[in-house]
Amino acid sequence: MSNTPAQFDGVSAVCKANVYFDGKVVSHTILYPDGTKKSLGLIYAGTYTFNTGAPENMAIIAGAGRVKVAGASDWTAIPAGQAFDVPGNSSFDITVDEGIAEYVCSFG
């Protein structure tokens, strides 16, 4: 299960959006005073591949998707309220079959 709160207090938001795949994945970065970084975003229907630098924890907070982390042979369903981890210097594929999946990504 995901431990993502309903809101993040005491943070700064970066106004410029991170736009990927012709606008089918859009996020905004939030920064904590201690330097911790997260992104909040939307993934529209489709299949996308992301590369990671730092380890990531992706929590799906609304909608649903399927994920395959590099090296895995099978897709894993990720409904709202679930999260998955991706190692640093790796990649993952994510598919949203319909609608929009909302996510929070934690880095580090």
Summarize this structure as a short list of keywords or feature phrases.
0% helix; 108 residues; globular; mainly beta; 9-stranded antiparallel beta sheet
Question: What is this structure's SSE topology?
Answer:
Layout: E1 12-13, E2 18-20, E3 25-31, E4 37-51, E5 56-62, E6 64-69, E7 76-79, E8 83-86, E9 91-107
Antiparallel strand pairs: 1-3, 2-3, 3-4, 4-9, 5-8, 5-9, 6-7, 6-9
Task: Describe the protein's architecture and organization.
There is one protein chain. Strands 1, 2, 3, 4, 5, 6, 7, 8 and 9 form a nine-stranded antiparallel sheet that branches. With 108 residues, the chain is mainly beta. The protein has strands at 12-13, 18-20, 25-31, 37-51, 56-62, 64-69, 76-79, 83-86, 91-107. 17% of the residues are buried.
What is shown here, in short?
By secondary structure, this protein is an all-beta fold.
Largest sheet: 9 strands, antiparallel
Structural class of the helix and strand makeup?
Answer: mainly beta
Q: What is the N-to-C succession of helices and strands?
A: EEEEEEEEE
How many whole angstroms does the radius of gyration measure? 13 Å
What would the principal axes of the Cα set say about the shape?
Answer: globular
Task: Tell me the β content.
Answer: over 45%
Proportion in helices? under 10%
Poorly predicted tracts of residues:
none
Mean pLDDT: 95
Helix segment count?
A: 0
**Strands, total number:** 9
Give the N-terminus to C-terminus distance in angstroms: 19 Å
